[in-house]
Structure formats: C-alpha cells, structure tokens
Write a structure and sequence with these properties.
The chain is an alpha+beta fold. It folds into two domains: about 70 residues, no CATH class; about 60 residues, no CATH class. It contains three helices and six strands. It has a two-stranded antiparallel ribbon. It has a two-stranded antiparallel sheet with strand order 2-3. A two-stranded antiparallel ribbon has the order 5-6. It is globular and about 40 Å long. GO terms for molecular function: coenzyme A diphosphatase activity; metal ion binding. Keywords: Hydrolase, Magnesium, Manganese, Metal-binding.
Length: about 130
C-alpha cells in the first residue's frame, strides 16, 4: 500500500497529510513543490475517504528510505514498464452477500500481488501518467 493515515489537526489539507505520512512511514521528506496533484477521493472498505496525492520523489537510485518498523513491514517498487505489460495486469471479480458484484484491478508477477485500494490508486495513476498506454 502507499503511505497514508488519518489527518492530524495540524495538517492543513490532504497534501500536508500525505507529506507528513510519507515522512513518518518512509523517512522521506517530500517538498510541497514536488507534489504533482491529488487524484479523486476514494472510499476504503472501512468507510473512510482516501485522498491520493501524487508527487515526484526523484530517481529511485538517489532515494534513501528509512522505513518505520512500527508502520512498514516491507518496501518494494515496480517499474512503470512492468505495470504497463498486459500479462501483469488483471481484474478480480467480487460478489457481496446481497448479490452486488464489482471488479477491481490487480497487478501480478512482481514481488507481490498488488490488489485492493493500492491497485485502484496505481490504476488511476497510470491513467494519468500514460493515458495512451494504459
């Protein structure tokens, strides 16, 4: 999943929350000028509203992560080229007890299967970054 958490009273907005959570969870200070924008808000399975924020962290080779072990079990990345390959893209179909069904994206063949809200945010980001390719 992506860094995230509840908005603190000191956070001015969703962007400030995202930057603080990234600093607290990954030890990465992201400058507000590195923020590209905010995706549409999404509901999570607990009824909370998630406000994804997209920012540039610069080259991964230059990035030094210091994950908080109390909040982060593991960190991994997937190249854009991997996410864009059709063989690594799929969908999972769900049905609720009431019979309502829905479909969510899933990204396969990496170190982990990317699914749920993380896959939805990944899909929205790909639609924004490479609209002609995804």
């Amino acid at each position: 999943s992506f860094p995230g958490g509840r908005r603190d009273p000191a956070d001015g907005d969703a962007v400030a929350t995202a930057l603080r959570e990234t600093r607290e969870e990954l030890g990465v200070a992201v400058a507000p000028t590195s923020v590209w924008g905010q995706l549409r808000t999404l509901p999570d399975r607990h009824g909370m509203t998630v406000a994804p924020v997209v920012a540039s962290l610069g080259p991964l080779e230059a990035l030094i992560l210091n994950p908080n072990p109390d909040e982060v079990e593991e960190v991994f990345t997937l190249p854009l080229a991997h996410l864009l390959r059709e063989e690594n893209q799929g969908y999972t179909h769900y049905r609720t007890a009431s019979g309502y069904g829905y479909t969510l994206p899933v990204f396969l063949n990496g170190p982990h299967k990317v699914w749920g809200l993380t896959a939805i945010i990944t899909e929205l980001t790909l639609e924004l970054l490479v609209p002609g390719q995804y």
